[in-house]
Amino acid sequence: MNLLAHLLLSCEDEDLMIGNFIADFIRNKEVANYSETIQKGIFLHRKIDTFTDTHPLFRQGTKRLHSEHGKYAPVILDVLYDYILCQNWDQYSTISIIDFTQKAYEILTRRLHELPQKLQTRLPIWIENDWLIQYGTEDGLRFTFQKMDERTKFPSHFVDAVDHLKSYYDLYEAEFNLFFPALIALVEEECGE
């Protein structure tokens, strides 16, 4: 899952949200630098990723992308799933996506000093561009994939991913809406709800 889903799947706990948000931006040896609750968020992020990467529906979606995108297929599907989450937000949250993202931006900004240096630099720009909401637009997806394409060493064809999504959107959305409730159940169990 990508950043929007990780923020949502933080059990409405700020420390878990911080950990869940920073997990991809820190090394294993840096985990001990954080509080116990933030560490729980980091480990929650990793459980979410493992569950996602091994889930049959996610693997089915990556197979559909593999011929065109190769090893980047899971990365593309992570981002596509955030797009689909935006489109189906009301099924998975009782607060609006606008209210949720504004609250997430407020928390991340207030606790900016706790984030890795790389994120301290990037986050204000991301917030200024309302990047979480942009995940839910075709233009936002194209921009995200274009930036990802610029950072890869091997041919990724990220920019073609949006067209691929449009061709198979109903299928991806149906798979997501079967997969995501199972992921929510896993997170609720982890949080003791």
How would you describe this structure in keywords?
193 residues; mainly alpha; 0% strand
Describe this structure in words.
With 193 residues, the protein is mainly α. It has one domain (3-191). The protein has helices spanning 3-8, 14-22, 36-54, 56-69, 73-87, 89-92, 97-110, 117-128, 131-134, 138-151, 161-191. The model has no long low-confidence stretch (mean pLDDT 92).
Brief overview:
The protein is 74% helix and 0% strand. It has 11 helices and no strands.
Catalogue the unreliable spans: none
- Tell me, briefly, the overall form: globular
Give helix and strand order, one letter per element, not per position.
HHHHHHHHHHH
Class from secondary-structure proportions: mainly alpha
Please indicate the percent range of residues in DSSP E strands (runs of 2 or more). Answer: under 5%
